[in-house]
Design a protein that fits this description.
By secondary structure, the chain is an alpha/beta fold. The protein folds into three domains: 210 residues, 3-Layer(aba) Sandwich (Rossmann fold), CATH 3.40.50.1100; 101 residues, Rossmann fold (3-Layer(aba) Sandwich), CATH 3.40.50.1100; 129 residues, CBS-domain.
């Protein structure tokens, strides 16, 4: 070692920073749960996901067994996160990497893998696993065709659950001082939940293991009946399967609970906005299941839920309002007034207004230009009245010259004002009662206007 580095604390490579992720208690989203719920934040890993753990472990196992040699190629079929973990190892240790992915994955994941120097091959999502163009089949074909290639095969590689048995499980046991009573994790390859479950149950057989599975996957039905059913498409990435992964040990899983796309993805958005925990859809799904479990428990219980990855890979999907609307996934029950204002589809400013002293003619021009039915009137930052298109029309017909009068001579009562975080359900009641629109306030000032038409468009887009 260089003498200048003596006593300096550092890691030899980024791979040495994998693991030792924190537990954080969920507050607002778990407020109605008697039992505390702690989230294991795996996005603190250097590659942003729990899959960093198995990426490193599988490569090291392949090196020990002589299956991967210097200058070789790492091949894997992945929804993205395992690819990142493997791509980091490949970059540090000088391997090439090829990743086969379903075409439903976000563009962020594809671009991220390419940034690490990996090759990415996309395959159609809605095909059987044994189809020639499925990403499983493509990965096998690439491995056969390229000399020195090694398929890590996370779905059937025993090192996958072993990595969690040796690292994730002991971390959780130590962090909770052995007091946890329930562990919740999503089902994908099954490696995370199986490895952690085996570790925890060896220490306390009473710890209950609960799997979270998206509606459309076959894993819940298989756990309950032992039979393989027909899979259906779903939007949540990285979890659920249409086949049974060999890395899953169903014998250590006590229960599997299904979660819909809408429930899981809307809770994902709530985690960012209410807890400042920015994660992907599979994390929202896992938390939704964890809350279902925790609501039936007591304050003496302790639930730990594993959140697999960062939300940065889903900015074009779950964290994108337009994508949520286009896929009819917005849940009005968990949406806020500002969500509707920010997501208006009409090419119109968020807040059209006039101020005291402006003329009725100026107000009428705004009505005609933007095809609106009401315009708020402001004195400084305060809303003091409202002009309606019907009153402007009557005034123009009765006395065209009167349009040069100031707006305050014709304005009606000001519109009600609600906070941006007001639940959509409450705002809908205001609009259904007697108000044609409401003003939205954020950070102490009026930031937008929400009309009945806007609300109807939002609800229609959520169906």
């Amino acid at each position: 070692m260089s003498r200048v580095l003596e006593g300096v604390r550092y890691q030899e490579s980024v791979l040495d920073t994998v693991g030792r992720t924190p537990l954080v208690r969920l507050g607002k989203v778990a407020r109605d749960c008697p039992a505390p719920v702690l989230a294991k934040l795996e996005f603190f890993n250097p590659g942003g996901s729990v899959k960093d753990r198995i990426g490193l472990a599988m490569v090291e196992a392949a090196e020990r067994e002589g299956l991967l040699k210097p200058g070789g190629t790492i091949v894997e079929c992945t929804s993205g996160n395992t690819g990142v973990g493997l791509a980091m190892v490949a970059a540090v240790r000088g391997y090439r990497a090829v990743f086969c992915m379903p075409d439903k994955v976000s563009s962020e994941k594809v671009n991220l893998l390419k940034a690490y120097g990996a090759e990415v091959l996309l395959s159609p999502t809605a095909v059987p696993p044994d189809a020639p163009d499925s990403y499983y089949s493509v990965a096998k074909r690439v491995t056969q065709e390229r000399p020195g290639a090694f398929l890590t095969n996370q779905y059937h590689n025993p090192t996958n659950p072993l990595a969690h048995y040796q690292s994730t499980g002991p971390e959780i046991w130590e962090q909770t001082a052995g007091k946890l009573t329930h562990f919740v994790a999503g089902l994908g390859t099954g490696g995370t939940i199986s490895g952690v479950a085996r570790c925890l149950k060896e220490r306390n057989p009473k710890v209950r293991i609960v799997g979270a599975d998206p509606v459309g996957s076959i894993l819940k039905a298989y756990h309950e009946t032992g039979k393989i059913t027909e899979a259906h498409t779903y939007k949540i990435e990285g979890v659920g399967e249409d086949f049974i992964p060999g890395a899953t040990d169903f014998s250590v899983i006590d229960q599997v609970i299904s979660c819909t796309d809408r429930a899981g993805l809307n809770l994902t958005r709530r985690l960012a906005r209410e807890e400042a925990i920015f994660v992907g859809g599979s994390s929202g799904m896992a938390v939704w299941v964890a809350l279902e479990v925790a609501r039936a428990l007591t304050p003496e219980d302790l639930v730990v839920v594993l959140l697999p990855d960062t939300g940065e890979r889903y900015l074009s999907k779950v964290h994108n309002d337009e994508w949520m609307r286009d896929n009819h996934l917005f849940d009005p029950a968990v949406s806020r007034a500002r969500d509707i204002v920010s997501g208006k589809r009409r090419p119109i400013p968020r807040l059209l207004s006039v101020k005291v002293g402006d003329t009725l003619r100026q107000a009428l021009a705004l009505v005609e230009q933007h095809d609106v039915t009401q315009i708020p009137v402001f004195r400084g930052a305060e809303s003091v009245g409202t002009l309606y298109d019907s009153d402007l029309l009557k005034s123009a017909l009765a006395d065209p010259a009167g349009l040069d009068r100031p707006v305050e001579t014709l304005m009606a009562e000001p519109l009600p004002c609600v906070q941006g975080d007001e639940p959509v359900e409450q705002v809908a009641r205001l609009l259904a009662a007697r108000n044609s629109a409401v003003l939205i306030s954020d950070n102490g000032g009026v930031s937008g206007i929400l009309t009945r038409f806007d609300m109807l468009q939002f609800i229609a887009g959520a169906e």
